[in-house]
Specification:
It is a single chain. It is built from 7 helices and 5 strands. It is α+β, with helices and mostly antiparallel strands. The protein folds into 2 domains: 135 residues, Ribosomal protein L10, N-terminal RNA-binding domain (Alpha-Beta Plaits, 2-Layer Sandwich), CATH 3.30.70.1730; 35 residues. A 5-stranded antiparallel β-sheet has the order 2-3-1-4-5. Helix 2 runs antiparallel to helix 5. The longest helix has 32 residues. The radius of gyration is 22 Å and the shape is elongated.
Length: 172
């Protein structure tokens, strides 16, 4: 591969990470063509972008990121570097738990893909032992929805109590 091609790949990866800083690094080595195709199809259906990259190019892309105001923590990214060994696939996502669910589903049946690490919401998760945590992680919008629901519950009880009190006063 020529130097220009490598520079273009590094630039493309860095742009994708800057655009969507939620990503998983997985090992998909050993999957045959049919299983790889099924994995790609499952990723497409869940709006997860899957690309296979060379580790050195990915590391250079991570090192070269302009992280100012992008919601990217360089110290956390550096913890991912030791996982850049063997075959690496990047799974980009807007829904933080989607790739974890795909990895669990396929991993249970085929043994691969295997989670190497993930970078979600400015935090790094290194190792397959974090898969259960990542499956249950909520997106920013889901968290806001839960908070609103929690705040609405006491307000609804107060309104209901006031309406009951008003009924009792008007009946008397």
């Amino acid at each position: 591969m020529r130097k220009e091609e490598k520079a273009q790949i590094i630039e493309t990866i860095a742009a994708q990470i800057a655009e969507n800083p939620n990503f998983y690094l997985a090992d998909i080595s050993g999957l045959n063509a049919e299983n790889t195709s099924n994995l790609r199809r499952a990723c497409f259906e869940k709006e997860v972008k899957l690309i296979v990259v060379k580790n050195t190019l990915l590391q250079r892309a991570l090192e070269g990121l302009d992280t100012e105001g992008q919601g990217i923590n360089n110290e956390e990214l550096m913890t991912l570097y030791p996982t850049l060994k063997g075959s690496t696939a990047i799974m980009f996502t807007d829904v933080p738990s989607a790739p974890a669910k795909i990895i669990k589903e396929f991993g249970a049946r085929l043994g691969k893909p295997e989670l190497k690490s993930a970078y979600l919401q400015e935090c790094a998760y290194v190792g397959a032992d974090h898969l259960a945590t990542l499956i249950n992680i909520k997106s920013h919008d889901e968290l806001i929805g839960e908070i609103i629901g929690l705040l609405q519950s006491p307000i609804r009880r107060i309104i209901s109590a006031l309406q009951e009190a008003k009924k009792e006063v008007t009946e008397e």
